[in-house]
Each structure stands twice: as structure tokens, then as C-alpha cells.
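Figure 2 data, in text form.
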Amino acid sequence: VFFCLFFFPSLPPLIFSEQDLVFAAGENFLGTMGSGQSSFSQAQLEEYQDCTFFTKKEILHIHKRYTGLGGKSLQEKLPMEAILTLPELTVNPFRERICRVFSEDGTGAMSFEDFLDCMSVFSEGATRDVKASYAFRLYDFDNDGYLDKQDLIETVKCLCGDDKLSAAEMQLVSDKILEEADLDGDHRLSYVEFEHVISRAPDFINTFRIRI
């Protein structure tokens, strides 16, 4: 029963053209952002490449998607409402939770770097360990470093959507999860216990992603 918590709906790929992959030769890539302009230096682009699982071309494409949502500068934050209009998130039951986890201040608003980090973790190139770490944070609704019974109930609520279970049914599911995965009997899951479950879910790394 626990494995079902890690399967996100199939998400449509982010499609980009040859034009998206072309950036100006020389020191700066210039991108139109609303009424203003912003630039990546080669050093910035290389730094982003070093800190993510993306190539420079993919980073530029993601920047284009960010500005398409209304981003006007690298520093200014997009409100969560704008991020949630991204088609790849609209079908995800954890969409608001994703925004809050990757938002530096926890409000759900994202700077370009927050957005890039999010896309990197959900990319095909991200490692199992990185994905597992962020999956744990997504399910840790109270941010206390453990998945307790209430966290699991909130997770089940997200997954059920409109087909809501009764309170008794959600209690039963969360109890079953703890029975299967709580190895030390403290009625909550540590990251180590969570990681143990992930290791037995071979499809996890393929489902916890947004394709670009």
C-alpha cells in the first residue's frame, strides 16, 4: 500500500524547438522578460549547469518557460498562482506542496533559481537519492523531519483528490503504512525508513519526474 504514494500521474513532456536551444555567441545570453531584459553571463550559466542536472541549452529553455509564466527578472519571485498554471503541474495532486517545498521562503512563490531547482529534481537526470530526499520533504507536511500519521493522512488526501476516503478509511491506510514501514516502532517514519521503502520501489525514479 505504501508504494502507491510515490507514483505521480504521467506528466506531459516540456517540448522545445531548435530556436529555444540557440543562445547568442559571446559573453551574454539576452532574453526578453516582459518590458525589460535580463542576461545570463557564461559564468552564471556554467554555475547553474554545475548545480543542476541540466545542460546549458536545457537551462535556457527552462528560463524561457519561467518568463512565459510572467517572470520579469532572475531575482523577482513569481507567485504560486502563476507557477500552478504550468501545464506539467496542473495534473499533479501535490502541486501546491511542490511549490512550497521548492520556494525558498516556503510561501510557494518562486525565484528563477527556485524554479530551476524544482525542474532539476524532477528531471530524468536527477539521481534516486536526490529524488528520494525531496519526496520525503513533500510528504513531511509539518516539516518536522519525520512522516507521522498525520503526514500520511495528508498524503492520502492529496492522492485521493475528489474520490475522498472517509476519516476511518484514511486512518486505516495510514496505520497500514506504518505497520509496513515503521521499523523502530516509534509510530513515524524517519528518512532512513522512508529510503528503505524507496529502495523496494523500482519504478519510483521513473515516476517522480517532469520530462523536458
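Caption note: The CA atoms of residues 89 and 95 lie 6 Å apart.
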